[in-house]
Amino acid sequence: QVHLVESGGGLVQPGGSLRLSCAASGFTFRRYDMGWYRQAPGKERELVARIISTAGSTNYADSVKGRFTISRDNAKNTVYLQMNSLKPEDTAVYYCWSEWRGSWGQGTQVTVSS
Fold first, then answer.
1. Between the CA of residue 24 and those of 12, 17, 18, 91, what are the distances in Å?
2. Among 3, 35, 43, 86, which lies 20 to 30 A Cα-Cα from 64?
């Protein structure tokens, strides 16, 4: 059974930083692409960042380029999202995603507000 468990969300002021983590189990982590999506109230879920299984190539939504960094540690079966220079429009539930069967985590709330 696949488990994707996110952590690291919370309340932060504009301009602040957070690091999200997603611990994966139940599949061979290193073989699959991983990603982060987000869903704000009243909006569709959207891709934030993705990292491929080999070589670690990444891609980002235009709205987060230069501010967010996705990375992975295959030894720890964990994918990270470092979020800097956060803006109120980054407020959303952030979901971890795995290419393995299109699996999802339960989500973690990120709120950017003063």
1. 25, 23, 20, 24
2. 3
Furthest-apart CA atoms within the chain: distance in Å: 41
| Strand spans (E) along the chain | 3-7, 10-12, 18-25, 34-39, 46-51, 58-60, 68-73, 78-83, 92-98, 103-104, 108-112
Query: pLDDT (tens digit, 9 = 90+) per residue, 28-71?
Result: 999 999 999 999 999 999 999 999 987 779 999 999 999 999 99
Please state, in angstroms and rounded to a whole number, the distance separating the CA atoms of residues 48 and 16: 18
Q: How far is residue 64's CA from residue 62's CA, in Å, rounded to a whole number? A: 6
In angstroms, the CA 24 to CA 97 distance is 10
Exposure string (b/e) for 43-63, b if CB count within 10 Å is 16 or more? eeeeebbbbebeeeeeebeee
